[in-house]
Amino acid sequence: MGRKPKPPEQRMAFFTARASGTSLRKSAVLAGISRSTACLWLKQSGGVRPRATKPRSALRLSLDERESISRGLAAQRSLTAIAAELGRSVSTVSREVLRNSGSSGYRAAPAERLAVARTRRPRLGKLALDDRLREHVESKLNVCWSPQQISKRMLSEFPDDERMRVSYETIYTSLYVQAQPGLNAELTAKLRTKRLRRHSQRCVSCGGMKSRIPDLVPLNDRPAEADDRQTPGHWGVT
Questions:
Q1: How far apart (Å, rounded) are the C-alpha atoms in residues 209 and 211?
Q2: Which of 190, 163, 165 is nearest to 175 (CA)?
Q3: What residues are paired with 189 via a beta bridge?
Q4: Closest CA to 200 of 25, 52, 48, 51
């Protein structure tokens, strides 16, 4: 029968937690999903937070309504009776069953996935629409330039061409989210990190940011004699 699809709000809660630097396991707990589901979502999205989805139109069938249709068909009820129970027209229910039935008949979860996939429209990013811009970015990635370098260097290389502008986040998104047409995923091997997905830019641990300096002493905790700076280096000893 297939697993019941997770609501968009649950997916956004997971990625919001990840964007704040929360660990994978804790983000999954906060969103109310399993760790395997969290890993699957990260793999599908390339680690890039998806765009917020618009609320579903009242004209479209909901998952609960599809489950009612599935139970009605299993009980061998007529489409007219099912439509009357849902308050929908018979043609709406009939079209739903014909379009979203599989080899084993009509099932609510697969029907929901088919309907959602059918309504999705691929977003063509800037790199997919402009061949010249895409080829320039690919040429720089092939010689191991970072997306930040590519983005900033364009300002001096093409000062009078506004079309030759792209943010480094757009480059990362095109690399990691392969559902969006753009750069070839193989170019991720040219990145210095060699990562297969985008990592969170924040890191939250023990209520604060991790420091790269071990045993770091905050400036406010320096001894008073450090203000005179008469003995070089002695204020760094705790």
A1: 6
A2: 190
A3: none
A4: 48
Nearest to 3 by CA among 99, 118, 110, 106: 110
Give the residue from 86, 81, 48 showing the smallest Cα distance to 67.
Answer: 86
d(CA 113, CA 94): 18
Domain extent listing, the chain: 1-55, 63-119, 129-238
b or e along 120-137 (b: 16 or more beta carbons within 10 Å of the residue's beta carbon)?
eeeeebbbbeeeebbebb
Angle between helical axes of 79-86 and 63-74 (0-180°, round to 10): 150
Per-residue pLDDT of the chain in tens (238 residues, 90 and over written 9): 456 677 777 888 888 888 787 888 888 898 888 888 888 887 777 767 776 666 677 788 988 899 999 999 999 999 999 999 999 999 999 999 999 888 888 998 888 888 877 776 656 678 888 889 989 998 998 888 888 999 999 999 999 998 899 988 888 877 777 545 567 667 777 777 766 566 655 544 444 455 567 777 777 777 777 777 677 665 554 4
CA dist., res. 83 & res. 65, Å (int)? 10
Q: What is the CA radius of gyration of the chain?
A: 26
pTM: 0.46
Tokens 């629409």 — which residue? Answer: 129
Q: What is the dihedral of CA 4, 100, 98, 77, to 10 degrees?
A: -10
